[in-house]
Amino acid sequence: MNRLDRLTAILIHLQTKRVVRAQELADRFSISLRTVYRDVRSLEEAGVPIGAEAGVGYFLTDYHLPPVSFTNAEASALLLAGKLIEKWADKSIRTEFESALYKIKSVLKQPDQEHLNELDELMHVSRPEIRQPYSDTLLTTIQRAIAQQYILDIIYHSSYNDAESRREVEPVGLYHYSMAWHLIAYCRIRQDYRDFRVDRIRELSDTGQQFARHERLSLQQYLNQIKARFDRPSAVVTVVFEKAIVRHLHEQKYIWGFLGEEDLGDRVRIQLSTPYIDGLARWLLSYGKFVTVEEPELLVEKMRALVNEVRHHYRQPTLIDVD
Amino acid sequence: MNRLDRLTAILIHLQTKRVVRAQELADRFSISLRTVYRDVRSLEEAGVPIGAEAGVGYFLTDYHLPPVSFTNAEASALLLAGKLIEKWADKSIRTEFESALYKIKSVLKQPDQEHLNELDELMHVSRPEIRQPYSDTLLTTIQRAIAQQYILDIIYHSSYNDAESRREVEPVGLYHYSMAWHLIAYCRIRQDYRDFRVDRIRELSDTGQQFARHERLSLQQYLNQIKARFDRPSAVVTVVFEKAIVRHLHEQKYIWGFLGEEDLGDRVRIQLSTPYIDGLARWLLSYGKFVTVEEPELLVEKMRALVNEVRHHYRQPTLIDVD
DNA sequence: TCAAACGGTCGAGTCGGTTCATAAGAGGGG
DNA sequence: CCCCTCTTATGAACCGACTCGACCGTTTGA
């Protein structure tokens, strides 16, 4: 008998009786007990809600789940999400997402399905990088390990010293920044928290051993700690931009803590507030003569220092620099 | 992938489209055509009413699937997608996505629900830019207009001349690049295709009038055209960064068309490709001595010109610059 | 303490999958 | 009308992976 047929037959058998012993199924299909256990496991993995109790047997638990249906807008949102996921997650996540999306599509009404199929070709996400396409299948494994507190054994290629190292880590969370997913984990060797870029993890395996999460920082705590470490007092600075280029600032000025602006005719006086005075100086440098620093004097000095720096750096190679 | 899972997935796939070609299934599950034929045969033998027509494909004749249920892995993938969506899409999409995710959660088994709730707090996405948070509710409206070919009436804030303009456009598609969603549309006033950054659309309303898409380029055609137009002037540049700095580049290198990098020990050679050579030069200037331009010579000259510019701009007021 | 559900491992053997060759039906173009 | 293309469909040969049974032990609830 076909395995597929047998599985459906077992399902039907379970539906006809309140409780069924594994031995009963083994006899009915003349298979071993071991195989029954494996079949039941397969059905469970396929989503059939089978309950089991030692000393009693198998039984089906509420097979009548409420039918879900999705609106057109929900499906469209999921489709858009899928477009992003296609580029921003690895293969394992892509596959699972796709599978879910197909399921959702399948319960839509015919016109909505067509609407969605049309929309599918009218949205596109560009991923500028050529970087090795996220072809790994790590994210789902990591997700499971994080939620179920499994220790992971990873081989990591560090960009810091360009070397591979192997370590056992206790995963704390997944964090996405700088266009990449990062695994935050407690490294048992270094006895500290580490930040692993997922696309630099060469190999990963689940050791099966569990750890106690409560002994570790939560993801939120870790992020707060990182944030606190980089928190410094801010300085208020005043700069004057040529009006012609003010419109190019737009989002960027908020990064440097935009406080307010004052119209000076063909120029605009802008106040900013940031703890990263050096970074600000470098940013202002890129606006060249179109920006003038008024305050503080410290920033002006930093600007001059930078000018000196680039002046030496970009000197004509034919001239001897006396420095 | 499990054969059992594949068969159900094929069944679901068949429900999402009117006709499905065997090749499509073969591609999706990366199996051979031969295997698709055998799988379809298996489904037919299991009682699924699949119709087949040579030269056309497979289709399902009235079949009602039992209510969908989602696997743990699928739900986890959706959750991860939701984390990205939270930061990369506007409020309308977020709302719809959340609503769908909630429905999906509700049909999960209890342990899976708990698994998901735990995972929810262990994943996080950082959006580095402070830019006005995507609070608009435009994307779903745009999606609907695109798919149903409705003319849109938009008020757009152009960064080019820092002015608002109102126009009627025929939406062609949504395209995501440079960290933002862009509406590609045919502007009826300018009689040409335009690229509107969705977060710069101040107001948007659906006129209710339809247009004929077949008269316009498809999104794919438009993208190809754009690519062709910008492929030529785009210059490939090679720069070498100090390794200590590389991690601060974050997303920015992608804005300048990051192509790839080569490890040089304590430095990293990076290749970029951009048509905006002047902007690139100003950006590179802010990295001072920590970046060295290798190619092209044109860029080196631009850097020197900028250095001269800032040198005059930041000269000591008390000293006379002999130039 | 019993009875039942579970899990690991290992060897034999089947069956699932690929590749290649071929047939055959539907539609389009000249 | 024939020919070409696209598609479903079948057969044969070959190989690897998976299924299954046997035996062991562990866990769990009554």
From TrEMBL, chains A, B:
Signal sequence annotation: none
GO molecular function: DNA binding
Span of domain HTH deoR-type: 3-58
Keywords from the UniProt entry: DNA-binding, Transcription, Transcription regulation
InterPro entries in the record: CBASS_pafABC_assoc_protein, DeoR_HTH, HTH_11, PafC-like, WCX_dom, WH-like_DNA-bd_sf, WH_DNA-bd_sf, WYL_dom
Protein name: DNA-binding transcriptional regulator YafY
